[in-house]
Design goal:
The structure is a single chain. By secondary structure, the protein is of the alpha/beta class. Helices cover about 50% and strands about 15% of the residues. The protein contains nine helices and eight strands. The strands form two sheets. Strands 2-3-1-4-8 form a five-stranded parallel sheet, sandwiched between helices. Strands 6-5-7 form a three-stranded antiparallel sheet. The longest helix has 15 residues, at about 165-180. The radius of gyration is 17 Å and the shape is globular. The structure holds BIS(adenosine)-5'-pentaphosphate (AP5). BIS(adenosine)-5'-pentaphosphate binds near residues 15, 31 and 139.
């Protein structure tokens, strides 16, 4: 089963992808995480990627499609695409790559939210430095003992692009380049919507209901 989670920054794609990994044994492919890893590598490409991400702009299609191609060629029993595709050329490339592997996109689930909620979510976000579990100062606080509920890790980090200026740019990129994918998948008969403003457990139940 291959699932695309679609939605603006802060919609909850990463949060829901982790549930799908735990419950369905799928592999999460987050291009944002892959690019952050590339950034840490200190290579010339990593440095260029870091600058683009800090500005809240999109990295080139060529780079992200290359990253996804590598992962798909390595094989797996099903993927959750979190933050990919983000442009129409990326969506076409994904269809072709999956076809080459004898697979297809099974579900495209849009997590629909309103922009007001995103600022609060992004501003309050932190992740476990060890396992990547996502927390929020208001809606999902780090446990009182300071340990990650999933792995017991005690270090948490905040993202460099989680500031208001970068968020505005990321939102603009979403509306200009990614939101046309809603129409693209609607025409293909694959677009489904879940209310991403509901609490985390309700969103999880609604996503699971789409998969049955
Ligand atoms: P990426 O890492 O993909 O970031 P994003 O799309 O901006 O999405 P986020 O990770 O910010 O949000 P999310 O939807 O995963 O929300 P989360 O679950 O964390 O991309 C970063 C950058 O990389 C891009 O700007 C671009 O430069 C580059 N990039 C990546 N992919 C690319 C591509 N394909 N092409 C080109 N460039 C690419 O939740 C957010 C917060 O809300 C958390 O604190 C969480 O606890 C909380 N929360 C989640 N759900 C709920 C809920 N239901 N109720 C209350 N709180 C909730």
């Amino acid at each position: 089963m291959n699932i695309i989670l679609l939605g603006p920054p802060g919609a909850g794609k990463g949060t829901q992808a982790k549930f799908l990994v735990d419950e369905h044994g799928l592999t999460q492919l987050s291009t944002g995480d892959m690019l952050r890893d590339a950034k840490e590598s200190g290579t010339e490409m990593g440095k260029r990627v870091a600058e683009v991400m800090a500005r809240g702009e999109l990295v080139t299609d060529e780079i992200v499609i290359g990253l996804i191609r590598e992962k798909l060629e390595a094989g797996g029993r099903g993927f959750i695409f979190d933050g990919f595709p983000r442009t129409l050329p990326q969506a076409d490339a994904l269809a072709e790559l999956l076809q080459e592997e004898g697979q297809k996109v099974d579900h495209v689930i849009e997590l629909r939210v309103d922009d007001e909620a995103l600022v609060q979510r992004i501003a309050g976000r932190s992740t476990c430095a060890n396992c990547g579990e996502v927390y929020n100062d208001t809606t999902k606080p780090i446990p009182a003992d300071g340990k990650c509920a999933k792995c017991g890790g005690t270090e948490f980090k905040r993202r460099a692009d989680d500031n208001e200026e970068s968020l505005r740019k990321r939102l603009m990129e979403y509306y200009k380049q990614t939101s046309p994918l809603i129409g693209y998948y609607y025409v293909k008969g694959q677009h489904e919507v879940v209310d991403g403003l509901a609490d985390i457990e309700s969103v999880k139940a609604a996503v699971n209901a789409k998969l049955t």
